[in-house]
């Protein structure tokens, strides 16, 4: 078994010792990434915040027990956040609702960035339609910027399997968003 160098090792050790500055540094370093991961996986800002906060709470509680070597702390934290996301996704499937909840419009002002917002919504919707494992692979590699090796390790699959998931996910996204390329081509000609 090879020992993996962990850039967070010192920070986790200091968090375990209860050092307030280390706890703040960990939150500042990790919370935005966990929030982005949960947002992409769940598509719900409120649930994403809950997942990110729960993942950070578990990181803080786990810090005294953390033993570096087998996997990086960041990889472990991503796995925790993904598991929390999948727990919520399972509960969504188990609890049918008669009517959707009322939600405030979180979009941009009517006169600002309408096309960009529409594109973002289309991409998010297409991402949500992907099978869970394909969405997970794309989110980890493209949005969380993990390497293929890190993402494959996190997903407990080979790099080849990850690349297959990425390829199928990208192909499905291209098909889902194909009309956008024809619109932009028409706009460039017009």
Question: Which helices and strands, and how do they pair?
Answer:
Elements: H1 9-16, H2 20-42, H3 45-62, H4 73-94, H5 114-129, H6 132-143, H7 148-155, H8 159-176, H9 178-189
Helix pairs in contact: 1-2, 2-3, 2-4, 2-6, 3-4, 4-7, 6-7, 6-8, 7-8
Please explain how this structure is put together:
The protein contains nine helices and no strands. It has helices spanning 9-16, 20-42, 45-62, 73-94, 114-129, 132-143, 148-155, 159-176, 178-189. The chain is globular and about 55 Å long.
List the defining traits of the structure above.
9 helices, 190 residues, mainly alpha, globular, Arc Repressor Mutant, subunit A, Rna Polymerase Sigma Factor, Chain: A
Brief description of this entry?
The protein has helices spanning 9-16, 20-42, 45-62, 73-94, 114-129, 132-143, 148-155, 159-176, 178-189. The protein is mostly helical and 190 residues long. The protein folds into two domains: 1-94, RNA polymerase sigma factor, region 2, helix turn helix motif (Rna Polymerase Sigma Factor, Chain: A, Orthogonal Bundle); 113-190, Winged helix-like DNA-binding domain superfamily/Winged helix DNA-binding domain (Arc Repressor Mutant, subunit A, Orthogonal Bundle).
- Overall pLDDT, averaged? 83
Principal-axis shape: globular
Radius of gyration: 19 Å
Helical fraction equals: over 70%
Following the backbone from N to C, one meets helices and strands in this order, namely: HHHHHHHHH
CATH superfamily of the largest domain: RNA polymerase sigma factor, region 2, helix turn helix motif
